[in-house]
Amino acid sequence: MFKPKNILGTNGLLKEDIETILDTADSFKEISTRSIKKVPTLRGKTVINLFFEPSTRTRTSFEIAGKRLSADVINISGSTSSTAKGEKLIDTVRNLEAMQPDIMVVRHFHSGTAEMISRVINCPVINAGDGFHEHPTQALLDLLTIREAKGSLEGLNVAIVGDIAHSRVVRSNIYAMKTMGMNIKLVGPATMIPIEIQKMGVSISYYLEDAVRDIDVIMMLRLQR
Question: What is the pLDDT of residue 217?
Fold first, then answer.
């Protein structure tokens, strides 16, 4: 049984919470292989995707997932919302909540926005990426992919390579991977690895060739602009 109301980050999710999400996602993967890609799981439910930051993969993934589960999906971008006319974000989400949505998916360029919204509305909030903070659904997808390739997660050695400093996905992956008993090594030039990130219980290497020895999984990050 999944108990958390919101998914604001992987920080704080229990091992059983993550396993429930991965097992459920795994069971729904088969839907995408059907000729008619639709099940009634969320029939009668309304999902609002509120995206204040550009997105291709994340927004499309949430929209397709909602529609394949038979939800009514509403997509709103920052440029088309009333915030573009000067309305406060809090007022915007309260107005949307008055329309009785069942889930609000939020992507925003400021860290902590999803959590702030979750404090002022009653419907569940899913964080689809906030600033440099977290991107929990991407990390959960990473874990699902790794589990499919390796069979299990416990004890795996993972190297995350690239622009660590500007990646919210890294933070979500570190929290989730440590919860699942995985060992993490961050790899990249010193200018892209914040010193304080070692406090999260990871090891650091500045030399790729040495870092990837005895590693089970290598994750490559793109450079963030």
Answer: 97
80 is a catalytic site residue:
no
Active site residue 168: no
Whether 119 is catalytic is no
User: Is 149 within 8 Å of 143 (Cβ atoms)?
Assistant: no
pLDDT digits (tens, 9 = 90+) for 165-198: 999 999 999 999 999 999 999 999 999 999 899 9
Which of 33, 56, 85, 199 is labelled catalytic?
85
End-to-end CA distance of the chain: 39
Residues 6+ apart with CB under 8 A from 146: 153, 156, 158, 217
Known catalytic residue at 135: yes
Confidence grade of residue 85 (pLDDT, cut at 50, 70, 90): confident
